[in-house]
Automatic annotation (TrEMBL):
<keyword id="KW-0812">Transmembrane</keyword>
<dbReference type="Pfam" id="PF07264">
    <property type="entry name" value="EI24"/>
</dbReference>
<protein>
    <recommendedName>
        <fullName>Sulfate transporter family protein</fullName>
    </recommendedName>
</protein>
<feature type="transmembrane region" description="Helical">
    <location>
        <begin position="192"/>
        <end position="217"/>
    </location>
</feature>
<feature type="transmembrane region" description="Helical">
    <location>
        <begin position="128"/>
        <end position="146"/>
    </location>
</feature>
<feature type="transmembrane region" description="Helical">
    <location>
        <begin position="21"/>
        <end position="48"/>
    </location>
</feature>
<dbReference type="InterPro" id="IPR059112">
    <property type="entry name" value="CysZ/EI24"/>
</dbReference>
<feature type="transmembrane region" description="Helical">
    <location>
        <begin position="68"/>
        <end position="95"/>
    </location>
</feature>
<keyword id="KW-1133">Transmembrane helix</keyword>
<keyword id="KW-0472">Membrane</keyword>
Amino acid sequence: MIFSDFIKAVGQLSDRRFLGVLGLGLGLTVTLLAAFYAAFVILIGWLLPDSFSLPWFGEITWIDNALTIAGIPLMLLLSIFLMVPVASAFTGIFLDRIADAVEAQHYPHLPPARHIGFVEGLGDGLKFLGVIIGVNLVALVAYIAMPPLAPALFWIVNGILLGREYAQMVALRRRDAVGAAQFRNAHKVTIFAAGVLMAVPLTIPVVNLLVPVLGAATFTHLYHRLNAHPSRTG
């Protein structure tokens, strides 16, 4: 059933409202990745001299050129780690637009939702962003200590975090804070599974750029499906 929610979200990618948000999200993401890459190059430039000599190798002058050539691959690698906080921040800022588009097409009978204001959404997004960064920094120790298990650990940790964030934000459009918490608690397993479904493509460069939009849409479908059938868990 979760996959049906995801397929519906993918099927609406051509919606002009999705495309508008996707364009904004792509611009935000690429700008962020470019800023991190620029900061990385500047840091390396400060730490390493323009040229230096090594025994047997002579003078080394190719560091700057190597960083320039490696720019795109490096940004793609960075995107694996940066797209988790980007997806979280994106949810707080743009979720209303995506959820409105999904509900207009698939659930037109519903009354208007409570819109999460920009300031409220940004504040919630930034608070949860801190949680995501903190948890992933702690988890980084486990990734390094157990490299073969790193992908699975990444999916599990961020599946929990993203599932909670998406479910909370979607539920708050239709319920108060207590009701949103009750919704999350009643469907923990389903929300976790859907969160992992969002976390897995985050590790695929380029594809991960679509995840924030697809995540917001998928969880909107998931919320309405579970709300219509509260006794079902997936």
